[in-house]
Amino acid sequence: MVSSHDIHLDGDYAEWIAEVKHRNRSAQVKAALKVNVEKLLFNWQLGRDLVPKKAEERWGSGGVEQVSLDLRREFPNESGFSTRNLWYMKQWYLFYYTEDDSSFLHRLGAEIHKLENQYSAKLYQVGREIQDENMHQLGAEFPSPFALVPWRHHVEIITKCKTT
What we know:
By secondary structure, this protein is an all-alpha fold. Helix content is about 65%, strand content about 0%. Helix 1 crosses helix 4 (about 85-95). The longest helix is centred in the N-terminal third of the chain and has 43 residues, at about 10-55. It is elongated.
């Protein structure tokens, strides 16, 4: 422990400062999870938006590329707006949502929640804390368990799996 003044640091102080450090680390993790949730929700919504617009047909063959350019110009310090990533967003949405079986997402969520209950009550608690009423949008709902999976893992799933 570092001391900046000539003071007596007892055991109570050491316990308290350890608890403060723990709370700060916990807050940092929760903040990172919330940021991840919002980015994943954005990706889901953008993928959903690209489906009915059929950007590649409606705006010509360079429609998705133009969306990518516009977003990268507007948000130069953010990553994730490459043309390839926009196609992944659309593919991700389509992989899990079809008009024929929109209930799949609800079944998937129920299965994941069963696993959470079996393996980690803490994971379930974090998932509930980060769930937001904004996740229920027009079209398919954003499955809250998806928020616990990093974007790159979602990309790996959709590029390597043929079916859900």
